[in-house]
Amino acid sequence: MSQKTALPPLSDRDRRLIAALQCDGRVTAERAAAVLGYGVRDVHRRLKAMTGDGSVRVLGRPAPRTGTDAGAMLLRIRVLRGKIDVITAGLAARADIPFIDVTAGGDEISAVLLPSPGPSHQLVFQKLPVTNAVTSVATQTVLHVFADSSDWRLDALTQDERAALTPAVAQHDTARILDETDEAIIAALEEDGRLPAAAVAEHTAIAESTVRRRLATLLSQRSLTTEVVVDPRRLGMDVDANIWMEVPPDHLDETGRALAAHPSVHGAMATTGKANLCVAVWLRDAEHLYRFLTRDLSGHAITGTETVLIGRAVKRPGRGQHHQNRPHK
After folding, report:
1. Residue 32 CA: distances (Å) to CA of 95, 116, 164
2. Which of 14, 187, 222, 294 is the most exposed place for a label (fewest CB within 10 A)?
């Protein structure tokens, strides 16, 4: 157990605005206000407040390549007490490790190691095992990703509102090949996906008219996407947990897809190992976690589970290398 964040939970109106950003990270205040029935000034003010205090960030991303997460390694690293910060700092400095969590017990690190060239990961097979602070390293390879954090949607809109806020995708026969101009525009939006076209033009030295035209094309063809990064504690979700499951192979795909669609799941993947399905969940409290385990997982041919509570998120996309207390009840 740890103290709750000093920042208060966001209002229902703010939650609906976050859900609107998940539909379209570059939605205008005017459009969001019209669909949600709010005043334009109010929407401007609330968006500025949420993005200003870091509760919400909108990041620009190139369209993901199919299967890029398959082959990543999920690491579970047991560490001597008192040495956890040294190990997490070393891991967080690596560009090929985008996720690092410390469990609530304070003696285990959960991390994701992205695929890299070469026959093996030196980190796993050579460096970590000889570190005196590390007592054990367990690895599982990701075979299939059913959903990741960018797919998660806050359940705060009606179907009609979501449809009205989601931009249409242009149909095209072949995948768009990005040129240097496209890549420069996408790079300028990496840290702030809502950056105005004029600011992108100034940052890249590309004509504003070109930026506007390219942005419209990139977005309509989904060559550029946006991801909303939100502090779940501001949404009233105080429990962050990873649940490892054992599922018979003939039920694995069906179970993974079903759980990926659950509103509390912000990550689901099939892995190697006896526990071959891992889901990451955000839930309100321990009672809701209990309900998820006893009710929502029932009927899915799951033969075993292990629940790991996250106590601290050290590194996650959009939140850099810093420590966040993850409260649990």
Report:
1. 35, 41, 9
2. 294
